[in-house]
Request: fold
Amino acid sequence: PDALARRYLETVEGDLWHHRLARFMVGRISYADLERQADTAGKKAELYFYEAQNRLAAGQIEEARRLWEKVVKTDMMAFFEYDMALHNLAAHAR
Reply:
């Protein structure tokens, strides 16, 4: 992980969705807690994607693939996370 980015994320406060995602990425909120708060398809797409990246980094390819597939199922085609999920599914094909 990029140390500068991590230090920044650790300082993020607030209740906006991207603030919650920042707290999730530094371990201040759990995936399960944030999943309960993801009340739109866009929020779900972002959460699934970033958790998939966490799983990939941990060597859990099948779990990452399952989450990228969930990103695609949100149909949030205008989202960066949607495009990257498609790319990652192709790059990590079975």
Summary: The CA atoms of residues 21 and 92 lie 25 Å apart. The two ends are 26 Å apart (CA to CA). The chain has a mean pLDDT of 96.
